[in-house]
Write a structure and sequence with these properties.
heterodimer; A: 483 residues; mainly alpha; 19 helices; B: 221 residues
Chain lengths: 483, 221
């Protein structure tokens, strides 16, 4: 029996759904935490099988190509490591009484629904289904952001809900407009929403209508990417929810929304009369980068600090994809992967730190390398990596973005470098106190799980020193698809 | 002649949705706002049913039914109760005054007409006008969400925005997944309404803990 594309794709979607149903029924958090890990691990393995799948027959609803495999593998991998981190994180939350067993049951089920939603958005060949997947993932994260039920958490969840829904509404309007554009060309029915059909016929689309559609899609999904000035929900949602959720929000959900934008960018690029989507994305990306870089200085909450850093990096990635061309697209893809791994690794460390110190206030977290050497140095490594210093992978991808921009638009490159340097200064300004200041707060031993952190930072380090040639060939290929 | 009638009825219904949106953005009393919203939902249901009839697409009747029952009856009645329970029916919280809101609304409608009619010269005239009206309803809903601070009116603004989306979706001839999407949206709205409920309790009693609620009512065991 040969392995066909549909098996792997179906597994990636079915495992989270089944796991969610089982986890919703199971009492006992130890067992469900392990099951959560198992389900996430199995999904990751299933996603690896997509490499061997047959890509030639895209279905009307689901499909795989080089582009979405990159996203799915990254998505399921970080989903898996986060579930490992989450298992040790929630034990502590239960012990301190911030979460009750009932809420934990809900939490695990929602975690799987969220993974399922994201995988659905990534594997769908249908722009309506993609929208449904992103909506599902958003809804579940809203519920999880508010899970602590404190005033701040509910406020954050509400803000996320309202802004996220407006974004989702605009994206749906854009999706309807795309269908309307395709209507005269490909006819009524399902064809008008199948992405591969849309790309094949994009050359005959009415340019004016597809332009308007793209504006709606960019603003709608851009809200979910957290691009300034549509980012207002992001810092609150990151700061008030459980830390595993901050890790998946930063590392995964923002990518999924960006993936949706990229899919429509490809359609637009295939339509000759349409406006070039590049400059729009470059502008939004650059504004987000510079804005977030300056906002980093005045942060008082450690999770909020890294949330702004996520806005900054999503800005860089959007900028790179907006520039387009083989090198910039390659750099954007690499940066996206590196950012996901590094940022979720940082959130793993931050989660344990905040638990031990009992606070998220930067002013109260001092001298970590003295009180908790392993955790402290992990955080230092993470921040050095995310700030874009060698020998880590983020340095490599940022270097590629900057150098490819210098070759084409030197003025933009100057703004880009300025933003990156300002952010670097801010991160080190805060890191100095957090890691090397006069020790404060609890010195209790931590029961942290280091494996996910070590794995993430290790991968980022390896990527920085020596990118595996197969990965390079693969990403080059994907960069060509992106045009 | 038959085509003319089809067109006119669809036009009339879509146009009255926009009119009701105007009614909503200037409405300050919460009860009146809910009544206006229920009216809009009924109009939407009629409009969708008309589209189902015109396009010979029976699955659209499901969407119409959802709009009528869920948004025309259940949600307004539910919100009505919540407002009554929490005693907030007189709350007037607007960021901008009526006059300015009205002017801004007119500007938005003009904008959506100009944009949509300009970019769709080749499309089917029925779908084209529908889309222009739908965008107006969407933008007026957005305007309402930003010009109110009260959680209930924000939700109503969002639901009105969603009415515009359903109008657009059903106007696009033969669009698949419309029913599924309207169901997905209904779930979203249900979450919203529950959210408001918890949120308002939270503001009033300073907690969402049900036990604490019992304490406030003197029902603690």
């Amino acid at each position: 029996m040969t392995f066909s594309a549909s098996d792997g794709v179906v597994l990636v979607l079915v495992i989270p759904v089944v796991a969610a149903a089982v986890l919703a029924l199971l009492p006992g958090y130890r067992l469900s935490a392990r099951l959560n890990m198992l389900a996430s691990g199995l999904t990751f393995v299933a996603s690896l099988s997509l490499f061997f799948a047959d890509h030639s027959q895209p279905g009307n609803y689901l499909f795989v190509d080089e582009l979405n495999i990159a996203f799915i593998v990254l998505n399921t991998f970080v989903g898996f490591t986060t579930s490992v981190f989450s298992a040790s994180y929630i034990g502590h939350e239960l012990a301190t009484g911030r979460l009750t067993p009932t809420y934990l049951r809900f939490y695990h089920a929602m975690y799987q629904v969220m993974m399922g939603g994201m995988n659905l958005a990534l594997t769908s060949n249908n722009i309506g289904l993609m929208w449904v997947g992103i909506e599902l993932a958003t809804l579940t994260t809203v519920l999880m952001v508010g899970i602590y039920r404190t005033h701040e958490a509910l406020e954050a969840a509400w803000k996320y809900f309202i802004l996220g829904s407006v974004g989702i509404g605009l994206a749906l309007f854009g999706t309807i407009l795309v269908y309307m554009t395709a209507l005269p060309v490909v006819g009524e029915g399902i064809n008008g929403m199948v992405w591969t059909v849309l790309v094949a016929h994009a050359a005959r689309f009415d340019p004016a209508l597809i332009n308007v559609a793209f504006i709606f899609l960019l603003l709608g999904y851009g809200t979910k990417v957290g691009l300034a000035p549509l980012h207002a929900w992001l810092p609150d949602a990151h700061a008030e929810g459980p830390t595993p959720i901050s890790a998946v929000l930063s590392g995964l959900l923002l990518n999924v929304a960006l993936y949706a934008v990229l899919r429509f960018k490809i359609v637009l690029a295939a339509s000759p009369g349409a406006v070039a989507p590049g400059p729009l994305m470059v502008t939004l990306g650059l504004v987000s980068l510079v804005f977030a870089a300056f906002m980093l200085y005045r942060r008082r909450d450690i999770k909020r600090l890294f949330a702004y850093s996520s806005i900054e990096h999503m800005g860089i990635i959007t900028f790179a994809f907006g520039m387009g061309g083989p090198v910039a697209n390659f750099a954007g893809l690499l940066h996206m992967a590196m950012h996901s791994l590094t940022k979720s690794g940082i959130f793993f460390a931050v989660g344990h730190v905040a638990q031990i110190k009992g606070t998220q206030k930067i002013a109260d977290i001092r001298g970590l390398t003295v009180t908790h050497p392993a955790l402290g140095w992990s955080l230092v490594i993470g921040v050095v990596a995310i700030a874009g210093l060698p020998p880590f992978g983020v340095f490599m991808s940022e270097f590629l973005v900057v150098s490819s921009t210098f070759a084409r638009e030197p003025l933009l490159a100057i703004a880009l470098v300025l933003g990156i340097l300002v952010a670097l200064g801010a991160l080190f300004y805060h890191l100095n106190g957090i890691a090397f200041g006069e020790p404060t707060g609890s010195t209790a031993a931590s029961d942290a799980s280091y494996t996910p952190m070590v794995l993430h930072f290790g991968l980022v380090l390896i990527a920085g020193i020596l990118l595996p040639p197969t990965l390079v060939t693969w990403f080059r290929h994907v960069a060509d698809i992106l045009g | 002649m038959a085509h003319g009638l089809t067109f006119d009825v669809a036009h009339l219904l879509a146009g009255s949705l926009v009119l009701v949106s105007f009614l909503m953005i200037t409405q300050h009393r919460l009860y009146a706002l809910l009544n206006a919203f229920a009216l809009q939902a009924v109009l939407l249901a009629t409009s969708v049913a008309w589209q189902a009839n015109v396009q010979r697409a029976p699955h659209l009747y499901v969407t119409a039914l959802i709009a009528l029952v869920f948004k025309g009856v259940i949600v307004p009645v539910g919100l009505h109760r919540i407002i009554q329970r929490l005693g907030i029916h007189r709350e007037i919280e607007t960021v901008i005054g009526s006059g300015m809101t009205m002017l801004a609304g007119m500007g938005l409608v003009a904008l959506s007409m100009t944009v949509m009619l300009k970019v769709t010269p080749t499309a089917d005239p029925l779908a084209r006008e529908d889309l222009a009206f739908a965008l107006s309803v969407v933008l007026l809903g957005l305007l309402m969400m930003v010009s109110r601070r009260n959680a209930v009116s924000q939700v109503v603004g969002f639901m009105s925005l969603e009415n515009g989306l359903v109008l657009a979706g059903t106007g696009a001839r033969g669009m698949p997944l419309v029913v599924e999407i309207s169901v997905a949206f209904s779930i979203l709205i249900a979450f919203f309404v529950i959210g408001v409920f918890l949120f308002r309790i939270r503001e009033r009693f300073d907690t969402v803990d049900v036990q604490a609620l019992d304490r406030f009512r003197g029902e603690r065991r």
